[in-house]
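Why does residue order matter? Because the sequence determines the fold. Keep that principle in mind as you read this record.
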Amino acid sequence: MRSRRHLLTRLASVAGTAGLAGCSRSILPTAGTELGLPPNPRKLPERQHAQKEFLRTDGNGNPIAPRHHTVLLLELDATPRAESARTVERAMRTIEAAYEWRPEGLFHMLAWGPSYFERLGRLDATPVRRPENHSRTDDPRLEDFGAALVLSSDIPSRLRTVERAMFGSASSLGGKPVDHRLGEVFAVAGRRTGFIGKGLPAEHTDAEGIPDDASIPEHAPMFMGFRSGLSETQAGEDAVTIEGGILNDRFAGGTTMALTHFTQSLSEWFRGLGDDDRAARMFSPEFSPTDVTDFADSVPFSDQVREHATEHDIVGHHEKVAQARENGKPLLLRRDFNTTDGGRAGVHFLSLQESIDDFVETRRAMNGWYVRDDSEAITDRNNNGILEFITEVATANFYVPPRPDRSFPGLQVEE
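Structure:
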């Protein structure tokens, strides 16, 4: 398979420890044992990105994402060594001890960026690399952070409380003392915040980019009025997990994460387009608004993007992205959410994938450059899905280790 072959090539120089692939079963993780710490007392999934088994679902079996999200973008302030890794592991265990692993509690992931692996002198032998610009009309910041702490919960106060405990001076978290903080090792270089879920976008219509008379449906989960994340339009957690394969490398059991910030200009989306036009641009001109409402767990595309360009002079966002699949399955597991960061409507597109190449392939499919030859009305932005209404402003890549290797992955512990 394409992405796995790519990983095997990139990681060929990596000597591995035992592979950690397999289903996201609950185990007693051994995180910290190499650092001289006892096994983690919490019974949690081995994969940091494992949420599916713990999420609620709707009547059609689609997972319901946590409603509130924060991503803290971090710079490494300490030397990569065993004592720093012990501090990080103890701090992460403090978070785990405070809240249950569920939406009503807290999900969290500690991810690591290219600059960290470059500091170890191992960037070329890892699954992550620096981001690139894949747009011809946008000029995003290509960001390179040392790490990122990803937090999500149905209870927004949990996210703020964790941030104060890990990077502030709060003395307790969830009723338990805070003796170790991530702030001893990292500095917060940026924050991404947001929300997803029924009714939340309608509560944030005062942001720039949303007209006063915007017709955001009262119960819509996203600013553009449509729901996201139907189960058959998402890659599974197994599919985005890096396999050990013949190399048995220590990156197995983890995944890669892409984080892209798009701002949204919704005045024309709501004022200039009718319901039919919005459905065509978001999904495909073959669907009516009623069709979209009736989608259960999948979108039944006809796979006729070029024919639609010729016939309708419009192509849909989702039908373009559906061109990037492997054995008929999506490449990305999306955990995106809307935002009003900076006072402007937008979306933080957070995706998990086995290889960053999978994200790049999907992003290029979204560009729809290949359909411009089929219709003079379609340009890099106009009539090209939703590209006319979004602007990419920043993007970054990360590696998300399995829980046992989350504290300074790849560090050779000699102390």
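Residues 8-30 have pLDDT under 50 and may be disordered.
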